[in-house]
Specification:
heterodimer, A: 535 residues, alpha+beta, Dipeptide-binding Protein, domain 1, Dipeptide-binding Protein, domain 3, 2 domains, six-stranded mixed sheet, four-stranded mixed sheet, 15 helices, B: 299 residues, mainly alpha, MetI-like fold, 76% helix
Chain lengths: 535, 299
């Protein structure tokens, strides 16, 4: 036998041994089984996604509904390129991005058997826009501003919908793909979604036992043939953190809850159960400092800048998140997001450079504003009386102390926090903001635009508004990216709402759970249409 | 009582509408006013109070603000869970506390007495929720198993149901047993020094009869009082244990309802707890008469 033949024979034997010794991993999806999912609290607004801004409702309600378009469930980082049709088979931009035409799927039925038509789409988005002729009314409407640029919605026939825009806005599509944008049935009052869900989605409502679990079952009439794979999903409400991760380790739960996994917990779970799969993704939630721009002392830009300079962002990530967050400005940084500033630009911003230099600059600005050791700058810092908020605020207070600012902590009950922030009855606040889509429009218009109800700091700059409008209309992605970078720099330099860090999510799942792909946005991967169990 | 519950609840800052808007991340004063009107919480407090009393009298417990369901429908499944857990915990506490208290008293200052007192002191020093968490984490670490995290009905699987309740009942019962043990011991020490007990010993009566029939029967009244108080306390005090073991009971739900300012649910659950406290006290008082014929009522 020649040397080459011996080598080939040995290779073949080795391959056989390797293949025989490797556990068979099925790649062909199997149907059946119930997925047990973690649910961190009972559903705050039931299944009424349009009336909430919390993942606690969106996650268990998402499998019940469909959007016009959605982010490809199999792709982790969302962008315009990962958008795929859902209730809309195709779509087309017309009249230089002023009209967005959706061609809807035919033969789609609501869970109660009624046919889905363009009337349902018009009903849903007119309701959110609160048009005069809207057929429905939402009790709480957190995302009305997303559609401020929509002039009207037309349904020329049963399977076509046209969104007429006031000005071009390519990113409207990104917001329509968000988990926050499902289509509601026009024949069911929106209020009913608070107690059950009627959608077109892959799973139907079976039971909601208050405080215990939500059970969804497979929709046999789902319009995507062969989907979903699962027979059902159970969302088990477990409030206590120790219990929920014990349940995951013991196999009572198959997947963790989006946005709940911290680095510390993930390390502990991995050490206890090495076979559990842990993926690190961005979660589009930013820790930010609310600096009340509308009243003294922080209507003085120097004092806002001083506060921003005083807080060392990298130390914050290490101390408060044990490294489980990413430093970034007002858009989620790369590689977790698409629009974040590059490292070089970030380092030049206040609070991101060398801590000693930044603190010296902060002291100088404070002195220029008339504060110093003889006349210390005294402020009150408010936040919610929840540990993650208090940890955040305590760190900031300690950093401020190092530049001579005397800040006192005021813990506020959750029920009071948003009213206080909205009425701007605070000086400085520690806040967490979740953004529905990793898109500048979704973020800037909601949190930085003049007059937006969620612009808690009251920051309003004419030049920035122009820049926001310009980037929104820009069709060329590269040009838009450049504009978005400039806006972020300006916002940080103005101390508009200084970003501390972007939280990372450590998503945990048992290896037999397949096709559960966490995205860089916690709100957008709950559909469960592709998920299957390899058991 | 009803006035205190009603007023105290409303003294807490914010209401359900504030919470609803906080889940939406913004506030609209006009929408807020509309929802408050819809829920009837824009009316003067006394009008709301009178309405609530009228509803209770007619057997209507109102509607949960949070769930938009009749309050009774929300509360009904919670009650058996808490009652079962409280009863089981009390039984475990009695089974552990009374015999150890008696033995400790009879063997006063012996090694066994010291050991039992240390165990009892450990029970008093250890919060039941901490013990509960240790049990859960210990099970995961050593057995890789914990009971199901949703309630399993006894008709569905009695064994699993029993385990679901026995673990938290032990965590809670151990702490209560420590108190019962100490009360039993001190009451027994006092009774064991009584003349009639000394006489019984002198007459050469069987030790078991002296201790368990004569001495314990006379020492039991303060023990029963403590058991009654403990049971009443457990009905509302199982918050953390129910949370740790994820049991859908009254106490856990009450905390959530308070956080949400779901007034109808909180009012009714607190009233339920108050009624249980009153009834358990009444039961203990009636038990006095049966245990000790010298205690008579109404003469």
């Amino acid at each position: 036998m020649s040397r080459s033949r011996v080598a080939a024979f040995s290779l073949a034997v080795a391959l056989v041994v390797i293949v025989a010794g490797t556990p068979a991993i099925s790649q062909t999806p199997k149907s059946g089984g119930i997925l047990n999912a973690m649910q961190r609290e009972d559903l705050p607004q039931g299944f009424s996604i349009h009336e909430t801004a919390t993942i606690s409702s969106v996650f268990p309600a998402a499998p019940c509904f469909n959007n016009l378009v959605m982010y490809d469930p199999m792709k982790r980082v969302e962008s315009m390129d990962t958008i795929t049709g859902e209730l809309a088979e195709k779509w087309s931009w017309q009249d230089n991005y002023r009209n967005l035409v959706f061609f809807l799927r035919k033969g789609v039925k609501w869970h109660d058997g009624q046919p889905f038509t363009s009337k349902d789409v018009k009903y849903t988005f007119d309701m959110i826009r609160e048009t005069k002729d809207a057929q429905g009314k939402l009790r709480i409407n957190p995302r009305k501003d997303w559609y401020a640029n929509v002039d009207n919605i037309e349904a020329p026939d049963l399977h076509t919908v046209i969104f007429h825009l006031k000005r071009p806005q390519p990113s409207l599509l990104l917001m329509l793909a968000s988990g926050y944008s499902p289509v509601y049935p026009a024949h069911v009052p929106a209020a009913e979604m608070r107690t059950r869900c009627v959608g077109t989605g892959p799973f139907k409502f079976k039971e909601w036992k208050r405080g215990e679990y939500v059970e969804l079952v497979k929709n046999p009439d789902y319009f995507v043939k062969g989907r979903p794979y699962l027979d059902g999903i159970r969302y088990l409400v477990i409030v206590e953190r120790g219990t929920k991760y014990a349940a995951l380790q013991a196999g009572r739960l198959d997947i963790s809850f989006p946005g709940e996994g911290t680095k510390t917990i993930a390390d502990q779970v991995k050490a206890a159960v090495p076979q559990i799969k842990i993926e690190t993704v961005g979660q589009t939630v930013v820790d930010n400092l609310l600096v009340n721009n509308t009243k003294p002392p922080f209507n003085n830009v120097k004092l806002r800048q001083a506060v921003s300079l005083a807080v060392d962002r990298r130390a914050y990530v290490k101390a408060v998140h044990q490294g489980g967050a990413a430093v970034g400005a007002s858009m989620m940084p790369k590689p977790y997001g698409v629009w974040g500033l590059v490292e070089k630009d970030l380092n030049a911003l206040p609070g991101y450079g060398k801590p000693a230099d930044d603190k010296a600059k902060a002291k100088k600005l404070l002195a220029e504003a008339g504060y110093g050791p003889q006349n210390p700058f005294k402020i009150e810092m408010g936040t919610r009386n929840i540990p993650i908020y208090v940890d955040f605020a305590s760190f900031v207070i300690n950093e401020l102390k190092q530049v001579g600012v005397e800040a006192t902590l005021k813990q506020v009950d959750t029920a009071q926090w948003h009213p206080l922030a909205t009425r701007k009855e605070y000086q400085l606040g520690a806040n967490l903001t979740g953004i529905g889509a990793d898109d500048p429009d979704a973020n800037f218009y909601e949190n930085f635009a003049c007059g937006s109800p969620r612009n808690y700091t009251g920051y309003c700059d004419e030049q920035v508004m122009k820049m926001i409008d310009q980037q929104s209309q820009e069709i060329d992605v590269k040009k838009r990216q450049q504009m978005v970078w400039e806006i972020q720099k300006k916002l940080e330099e103005d101390g508009a709402r200084p970003s501390m860090s972007w939280r990372l999510d450590y998503v945990m799942q048992w290896p037999y759970v397949r096709n559960y792909v966490p995205h860089n946005n916690i709100y957008n991967y709950g559909r469960m249409q592709e998920v299957w169990l390899d058991k | 009582m009803s006035i205190i519950i009603f007023v105290l609840l409303r003294l807490a800052p914010g209401n359900i509408v504030d919470i609803l808007f906080s889940t939406g991340g913004y506030v609209s004063e006009s929408d807020k006013a509309a929802i408050m009107k819809e829920l009837g919480i824009d009316r003067p407090m006394w009008v709301q109070y009178v309405d609530w009393l009228r509803e209770i009298v007619t057997g209507d417990l109102g509607k949960s603000y949070r769930y938009d369901l009749p309050a009774w429908q929300v509360i009904k499944p919670l009650i058996p869970v808490t009652v079962e857990l409280a009863l089981l915990s009390t039984v475990i506490a009695i089974l552990l506390g009374v015999p150890t208290g008696v033995i400790s008293a009879v063997r006063q200052d012996s090694t066994l007495d010291y050991v039992l007192r240390v165990i009892s002191l450990a029970g008093l020093s250890m919060p039941s929720f901490w013990l509960g968490m240790v049990i859960i984490l210990g099970l995961v670490a050593w057995v890789g198993w914990i009971p199901p995290v949703t309630l399993v009905a006894p008709s569905e699987n009695f064994k699993i149901h029993a385990v679901q309740f026995l673990l938290p009942a032990f965590a809670v019962g151990y702490r209560s047993s420590a108190l019962i043990m100490r009360i039993t011991r001190s009451a027994m020490l006092e009774v064991l020094r009584e003349d009639y007990v000394r006489t019984a010993w002198a007459k050469g009566q069987n030790g078991r009869v002296v201790v368990w029939r004569h001495a314990l029967k006379n020492a039991i009244l303060p023990v029963v009082t403590v058991i009654g108080i403990e049971f009443a306390f457990l009905i509302g005090g199982l918050v953390v244990t129910e949370t740790v073991f994820n049991l859908p009971g009254v106490a856990r739900f009450l905390v959530q309802a308070i956080i949400w300012r779901d007034y109808p649910i909180v009012q009714n659950l607190v009233m339920f707890t108050a009624i249980v406290v009153i009834l358990s006290n009444l039961f203990v008082d009636m038990l006095y008469g049966w245990l000790d014929p010298r205690v008579k009522y109404g003469d």
